[in-house]
Write the structure tokens for this entry.
Amino acid sequence: GENVEQHPSTLSVQEGDSAVIKCTYSDSASNYFPWYKQELGKRPQLIIDIRSNVGEKKDQRIAVTLNKTAKHFSLHITETQHEDSAVYFCAARDSGNTPLVFGKGTRLSVIA
Amino acid sequence: GAGVSQSPSNKVTEKGKDVELRCDPISGHTALYWYRQSLGQGLEFLIYFQGNSAPDKSGLPSDRFSAERTGGSVSTLTIQRTQQEDSAVYLCASSPLRAQPQHFGDGTRLSIL
């Protein structure tokens, strides 16, 4: 089955700097890769996702890149703000409605 | 409804009691998923439903855990003879047919005394 590894487990950045979180996956059949943001005590919320037919996707300050050959994908947050502080989870799955397999999360702290 | 609804939001019970957790998915979403999140940890998959059937029960941690879904909508996760290690937040998510994003509810925080 799929296995997703996520690094780092914690990340501190100065406000205004960029943050990068990386994930690797094991199943070459996986073709859908979402990222979720979870603030303390709240539900995970989808912030961006990418499918295997594209290599990069951007949404304002957030971007995700995918390298299918190497089986890794990354989340990039530019010009970080205090409200970006949260736990971020990557996930992967193959086609259909099979369950997402999540990474263990990255706790991002944006320091003023 | 606007989103996935879970109840209760918090549940405190004594060890050995049975509990039922409810998930009401987004209207029209055929796929429904249950996850467990222990304090400060990641999301552990438990079970998922496609319609009323459960193609994948592989994540259920023991035979004390069961889930059902009727009418292709509401799902109930039941934990029998609860143990302290069952304490966690139980999250439900739903998605439409054909590989669309999953949307989570606020979860049920379960505490076993």
Notes: Chain B has a mean pLDDT of 92. The two ends of chain B are 33 Å apart (CA to CA). The longest strand of chain B covers residues 88-95. Chain B touches chain A at residues 30-31, 33, 41-43, 45, 48, 50, 56, 59, 91, 95, 97-99, 101-107 (CB under 8 Å).
